[in-house]
Structures are given as C-alpha cells and as structure tokens.
Amino acid sequence: MSTPSFRMVLEGVPRVGFYQGGPRCPEDIPFPSVMSALMKYFKEEDFGCRWEESNKPGCTINCSYSYFIGVSGVAAFLSWKRGWEYDNADIRFMSGDPREPLDRALQATGFTYELVCTEEGRDNKMLFREKILESIQKGHPVLAFGPVGPPEAGMITGFDEGGDVLIGWSYFQTFPEFSAGLEFEPSGEFRKRHWFEDSPGLSFILIGEKKERPPLREIYRGALEWLLQVTHTPLSVGGRNNGLAAYTAWARQLLCNDDFPQDETIVRQRHDVHNTAVSMVAEARWYGSQFLIQASNPEILNSRVSSDLLHASACYAAEHQLMWDLWNLTGGNGNPDAFRYFADPAIRRRMVPIIHEALEKDARAVEHIERALGRL
C-alpha cells in the first residue's frame, strides 16, 4: 500500500505537446505522438524507418510518429457529423470499435498492454492509483486519456504524495481553460491533484512487457489493409460520416448558410470545427505520405509494390497542400481573424471545390494502395 509521502518520477520521458516537442515538425495529433514518445523512452524505434527527413530548417520528420500515424489508421482518418461537433477529430470514432486504432498501434510495438477505464457506478480511484504506482515503480510511463484537458492522450511520468498527485505531460497543460489548479515540476511536467474527481471518462493504458513484435512485413501489410477499411467506412459511431464520405458531408455543410447567423460566437465555433478538419487532413495525410514511403521499402514488402505506394504517397502529400489552399482563403494558417473570412458565404463556396479535389486525391490514393496489396 502506498504511503502519503511516497514520490517517484521517471526521468527522460520526452515531452509531448502542440509545437512543444523539441526540434521536430509539429505533432498535433496526441495519440500517435504519445506512442512515439513512449517508444523513444523505451529505446524501441526500429519500425522500418530509413531516415528522419528534413522538411525545413530546424524541423525534422519523426519517423516513428509517421509509423504510428499509419498503423493506427490516422493516416486515412476524417470524420464529420452534422451539427458542427468539436469531437469530429476524435480518432476513436474511426470505426465501430473505439479501441481499434489504439489496439492496432499498441500491437505494432510488441509490448503487452492493459486498458483501465472508469466503469459506470463504480469508484475506481484506488484501482487506478495502485496500477499507476505499480507501473511507475516498474519504470513504465502510463498512457493516459486525461487527467488534464479533454480525454486526449497524454502521459503519466510519476506521482507524489503516495499517488494523490499525478505528474506528467499533457497537450493541454498550458491552456488557461485546463490549467486552473495545476502545479508544475521544475522540469515542466504538470502536477495534478483531484485527478480522478476532475476527469469524467478517465482511462489509462498500462504498458507491460516487451514480447516479440510481429514481422514488419506483416505489420505494414495489415496497416495498409486497415487504411482501406477506414477510408471505406462511410458511417461510424453515432451516424458520423467517415473516410471518403466525410469530405462530401463537410463540403455540403459549408454551403448551409443558415448555419451562419450574424453572431460572432457561433461563427467562431463553426470555424473552429472546420479548421480542426483542415488541420487533421493536413497533418494526417502528410505523415501518412511518409508512412507510405516507409512501406515502399522493398526490404519491408517487395519491389513490386514500391511504385504504387509512392504514387499513393504523392496523393496524400497533395492533399496536405490543398489544406494550405483552404487556410490561405482565410488569411493563412493561424490567422486570428480567420473566422471573419469564414463568415463570408463566397469564401465558403470557394472552399468546396478544394475539398472535392482532396476527396479525389484520397480516392486515388486508395486505388494505388489496393493495387499494391493485389501485388503482394
């Protein structure tokens, strides 16, 4: 049993966050970034990467991040539910089983794992505490959905006061709406009290022992098959439009002028949801293109598929560029007044053919991946 004064913090666990993860290119999709950081901590990064390609000065592409973007299915993910829903970007809506992208990423590491989540009508705080303390004492960080911010992936790297305080990294630890009451370690990690009470839907993934990982050929082939399944799943949890169908639903919504009253708060919210979709496609397809380049390595699959996978990669990269075209219509990526452009129905109409072109590129990538799989 833990004691109130008991403290332990693992050293050297890489930080994750929006544009705060070091000299790498942005990693704004939490789950694959956390998986990459965990594997870096475990010194397990042999995932078929041949390089860390320079994208621009001071920015290098994290090959293991590309790997987890691919094997989880994020590379092909897009979701759109009518009603301007903030959780369109939640990768757990990728299919009918919210665990599927998590399971696939974890199985591609060779580590055993255990999911611990809140059960309705039961207070699991003691269970959570003991399992977290046990994992940290074994030298294993804990993958956590919460306890800071929305239920997106972060890491627990330690504890204090016998587990009353959790220590770790969260994408949202510096956001004013989520940082109230937080303390911070000298290293920058958050210190969170009342972590169970403040976090509805809290869940953890405990990383177990390293087993023999499936052969890379098997992993990459399974990932390509999964990307096709994600793309061809038109409806997911709660009637969400997914994959190729999401592009059409997204474009159609932009033409619903009744959704845009003369109310700045509403327009800002609509733009936030739209911009999140743009960001998801831009990042997921860019790193997805890098994953397909990795898969084209003849030493992983075979030389007969290399050309098709490189063509698919080019389609994904073209989608990334199209998202920049969408950003440019609202004054550029990160423009604080972008919502004002977005309020203009003429601007939104100009966005629709760009989204349709992205859909065409996505469908073309699917054709190339299907052709590659047919050659294996």
Question: How would you sum up this structure, described in words?
Answer:
This protein is α+β, with helices and mostly antiparallel strands. It has 2 domains: 8-44 and 111-210, Alpha-Beta Complex (Cathepsin B, Chain A), CATH 3.90.70; 214-374, no CATH class. The protein contains 11 helices and 12 strands. The strands form 3 sheets. Strands 1, 5, 6, 7, 8, 9, 10 and 11 form an 8-stranded antiparallel sheet that branches. A two-stranded antiparallel sheet has the order 2-3. Strand 9 and strand 10 (190-193) form a beta hairpin. Helix 7 packs antiparallel against helix 11 and helix 9 (303-329) packs antiparallel against helix 11 (345-374). The longest helix is centred in the C-terminal third of the chain and has 32 residues, at 264-295. The radius of gyration is 21 Å and the shape is globular. The protein starts with 7 loop residues before the first strand and ends with a helix. The model has no long low-confidence stretch (mean pLDDT 90).
